[in-house]
Each structure stands twice: as structure tokens, then as C-alpha cells.
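Escalated from tier 1: 2-acetamido-2-deoxy-beta-D-glucopyranose holo job.
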Amino acid sequence: MMSLCFAVCAFLILAPCTAAPRDAAGGAFIRNKLLLISFDGFRWDYDRDVDTPNLDKMAQEGVKARYVTPAFLTITSPTHFTLLTGRYIENHGVIHNMWFNTSTQEKKQYYSTQFVDSYWDNGSLPIWITAQRQGLKVGSLHFPGTAATYRGETVKVKEVEPQFYDYSNETDWRWNIDKVIGEWFHDQDLDFVSLYFGEPDKTGHKYGPDSPERQKMVQQVDRTVGYMRERIHHFGLSDQLNMIITADHGMTTVLRGGLVEEIILSKIPGFNFKDITFHLVDYGPSGMLLPKEGQLEKVYQALKGAHPHLHVYKKEEMPAHLHYSRHPRLLPIILFADPGYVINGFLPLQFHKGEHGFDNQVMDMKPFFRAVGPDFRKDLEVEPFETVHVYALMCHILGIKPEVHDGHLNSTKNMLISKESTGETNNPQKMSLYQVVIGLTTLTAFLALVFAVTATYHVSKRKASRSYKSKHAAVEDHRDTRF
Ligand SMILES: *[C@@H]1O[C@H](CO)[C@@H](O)[C@H](O)[C@H]1NC(C)=O
Ligand SMILES: *[C@@H]1O[C@H](CO)[C@@H](O)[C@H](O)[C@H]1NC(C)=O
Ligand SMILES: *[C@@H]1O[C@H](CO)[C@@H](O)[C@H](O)[C@H]1NC(C)=O
Ligand SMILES: *[C@@H]1O[C@H](CO)[C@@H](O)[C@H](O)[C@H]1NC(C)=O
Ligand SMILES: [Zn+2]
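Tier 2 regenerated the structure:
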């Protein structure tokens, strides 16, 4: 009789506790949404010679980095994939905008390369897939890498641009924003979306980074940021949606018009394309060469020091800070030029006024970085950091367990409003009262269970068995919840 009473009491204590962890987990970690936006080629200082009221307002209400340092090679697909994976380019394997095959000589341009799954899926999972595997709802619009399949899985909600897409049309930009904010975040309740705009890169290449055309395009970007934030507000998402705006690289002016001695490989004494099996040149300031069998040393010696603004490295001797030497896709000789110069094969055939692809230490290669939303501090300017760290930040905000990566939350966590949560910031000294309460609740529940089991055992075998089963399940629940 006494035992039965204890069993009932224990059940009464346990019952509310059984439901607690789920509520508790929700209370301890509130998952806000995250929108990652890239404006291709938006250099860190592009807001200095243009009025950008919307970007300024966003900086007041959020976080701004003085600049960020992209991965090398500072071109679109490789650096975007570093944002998505937290890995340096030599580790994620998307080493160039172009896919190529050195035995067939086949090359694919940026757009076609988007559809070569094996090129993107080289062992590093982008955050989309990781988030989906952990139960989050994910979308991506036009972001490099969106079209590919990773370990058999694609981004569930996605839009890939058509082949001849006009990346500059402001009307289309607004449609895309309406889709992402209105349909994806609001109607479909997605947790994470990446969104890509092809400007001001295109204008920067065509007219140069100092041109009035580039300034005008930065105003278009600013209007777009204003529109985006207005839409977020309109759909009542301001309190749950974090937004990170950054870019893949910067832009610098190409020197020409007889001002400088161009780098033209075929004109370099002792260098002969006949000694080369495969080459990737005429692509801005960088290049890669695969010399014929036994010709590596000859090619290397001919090129090394041949032009004062041309850097020539054997792949394994690349400067360590570039993290661009280990991957098997990299060819044995890697070339890159100083700011202002591009690498030509036979003739100067490159006519862009602006270029990127230079050393990531060059200030003109640095992108901007802004963030705003419920998890970010306000009116804070932070010191520069490498974009390889953005991945850890995003995983932390989304509350997902990251894959192996090359970055660290260390570099960015000071921009977050400190809140107790699971993950890398969890520090025993900072255990909140809340966590203590949850801990005690669990302990109480466990003790109650032990008591209940002991007590009910004496009532009847059948009853005890039923009681144990349900309460054992309750303990399992507790154990699965991370504090
Ligand atoms: C390049 O082409 C050759 C010959 O068709 C093929 O064997 C090889 O697998 C290809 N390599 C890549 C990276 O596609
Ligand atoms: C990555 O690509 C390299 C070269 O194309 C290939 O040898 C390697 O097997 C790939 N690794 C994975 C995990 O896909
Ligand atoms: C921009 O796109 C809209 C809608 O697709 C189209 O109607 C308009 O003509 C385009 N504007 C330009 C300048 O191409
Ligand atoms: C994190 O930051 C601290 C202090 O800035 C530094 O000492 C530590 O090595 C960093 N940890 C990692 C893993 O980068
Ligand atoms: Zn780019």
C-alpha cells in the first residue's frame, strides 16, 4: 500500500519532467534563422566613395569587420566554397573556377563547372548538406556550388540561374529577395539560405574598381540591402533572422596602355610552350602549368625571375600562408602576378580594367563583412579575420555540429551576443543558473526513477514491469539532451 503510494508520487514527479527536456532544450538554445549573402567582388572599402545609407544603418544596428581575408586563389568558386566548408582551397579541392582535364585538354568555364558533381564533391561537405542531415531546412539561390550533388544529396530548396543570366538586373534581384524572404523563410520556414549576387564583380572587371560605373553599382547594392531589410521587417522576421553579408574577393585596377611591361609567357627567353602538356593561363593574374615528362626543372628555371612582377613556384614550394599547394588537382608549377598585372600566354588578350586572383595579403583583394540580427551585437566594428572562419560562426548560430574544418569560432565569437548554448563556446565556468536547474531536474528525475523502480517492484510484477518501461524511456530522453 505504502509502495503503491510512492510509485504514484514518483510518477507525479516524473511526468512533468519527462516533457521538460524538449522545452528546456528549446529554451537553452533558440535557433534563429540565418541568411548568408554574397555580393561578388564587393571590396572592403567600396563604401568609402559612395553614399551607402542602408549599409551604414546596418552597421549601426549590427557588426562590421574592417575587412576580411579571403582564401587564395582569390577567385569566385574556390573562395565561395571556403565560406561554405570552412576549409582552405587546397583541402576542399575546388581549386579554380574552371574544371579541366589535363589528358584530354578539356576545359569547362565557370557556369558549366557548376554541374560537375565530382569537382565540388571532393570530400568536404558544404554547410547546406550538414544542416540538412541534422534536420534543418535549407535553401540556396544562385550561390556557387548550389547545383552540385554531395554524397548523393543536394540542397533541398534551390534555384540555379539559367546559362545566360543577367547578373546585374535590379528587378530580378528584388524578385530573388521576395522569393528568399517571403517564400522560403516566411512561408516555408527555412532555417538557412545562401543567396548570391553577381555584382559588383562584373562592373568592377569591365570598368575598373575606381570607375563611376562601379560606384553606381555599389549604390544598387545598397538599395538592395535596404529592400532586403525592409522585406524582413515586413514579414515579421527581424527578431529571428540573422543576416551575414560578405563577398568572395575584392578587385584591383589592371595597369596597361604601355604603362607597364606586360607578362607574356611566350616571350620569355628559354620558355617554350612545347615543353608544356597542359596550361591554364590567360585567366587574370594566376596560372598553372603541367610540364612534359622531365621538363619541370627547365620550365621552372626559365620562368623564375623572368619578370619582376611574376611569381613562379613549384607547387610544393608555394608560400604557406596561401594554403594552395597540397591538392592533387593543382599542377606542378603555379604562377601569380603582382597587383596590376595579368598573365598572358601568347598575346595580351585580356582586356578587363579590373582583376582579382592576386595574393590574399593584397589589400585590394579583401572583401567586406557585415552582420545583423538577433544573435549579433550592435554598433560593433571588429578586427579583420579570414573568411575560412565564417563556417564555424554559421554552424554555431544554427546550432549544428560542424564537419572537420580549418577555421575556428575563436575569431568571430566576440561579435555574438553571449548566450549560453551548446557547442564550442560551452564553458563549465559559465554554466548558467538555467543549466544548473536542468541538471538538478535530471538528477531529481533519475533519483525518482530509482525510487519508483524500487518501490513499484514490491507492488506486483506486472505493474512494476509496465512502470519501469515508461520511466526508463523518460531517462533515455534526458540522456539524449545536451546541456
Ligand atoms: C580525364 O580524361 C581521361 C581520359 O578520358 C580520364 O581517364 C580521366 O578520368 C579524366 N579525368 C578527370 C579528372 O575527369
Ligand atoms: C578529390 O579529387 C582528387 C583529384 O581529382 C581525387 O584523386 C580524389 O579521389 C578526390 N577525393 C574525393 C574524396 O572525392
Ligand atoms: C530586368 O528584368 C526585368 C524582368 O525580368 C525585365 O523586364 C527588364 O527589361 C530587365 N531590365 C534590363 C535593363 O534588362
Ligand atoms: C583561441 O584564441 C586564443 C586567444 O586568442 C588562442 O590562444 C588560442 O590558441 C585559440 N585557439 C585556437 C584553436 O585557435
Ligand atoms: Zn567573384
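Residues 2-19+430-482 form one domain.
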